[in-house]
């Protein structure tokens, strides 16, 4: 299927690896030019070379802290225009909420709620003027089914979800959609890190810890960044102009509810 977005420009945050990279390369394979962002220059530039080599699109790498105003300005300035925005930031650390400080909360809200909102604010009106825009926020399955030790993520990402729910109904008349992708357990560095922590705590191997977690998923496996990126590409497509304000849970059937 031709998604009708060849020649567009996308800003994809956190795109040097993992789910952000999956979204970036899926968009590039549809002919979308990219500005990709991450904090570490080396891995980001390698990702840019790989994507450009595989797809032939223009890829501009901007290594910066997207949670700062200076970082956002640098990333936004690298694109001739932003037709597609993919917001993505690593989740805050787990823990007991009793031990979280005010600074912990501010950092979580800044990265996982306020930074996406600032990027939306900077790009949505030009999208409206051009009568095309696609905004996808990578949040978490914890928005749908909160996880007790992820209080910082539960709170910050739910705040972004509530904000999007209101705005998305205002922009869709202009062919500008805003949706959220909620990943469950995907085979990323972050998941491998949590699996290692679980293995160490339980005195078992990493492979055993991973197998236990996979056994809890109806699909019997972890998701891949390719699968996630393809879902993102669809939400950014011309065909998805009637889809807005939605929270797409991608978790291999792990969430047990009907709704």
Automatic annotation (TrEMBL):
Signal peptide: none annotated. InterPro entries: NAD(P)-bd_dom_sf, SDR, SDR_fam. SUPFAM superfamilies: NAD(P)-binding Rossmann-fold domains. Belongs to the short-chain dehydrogenases/reductases (SDR) family. This is SDR family oxidoreductase. It comes from Zeimonas arvi.
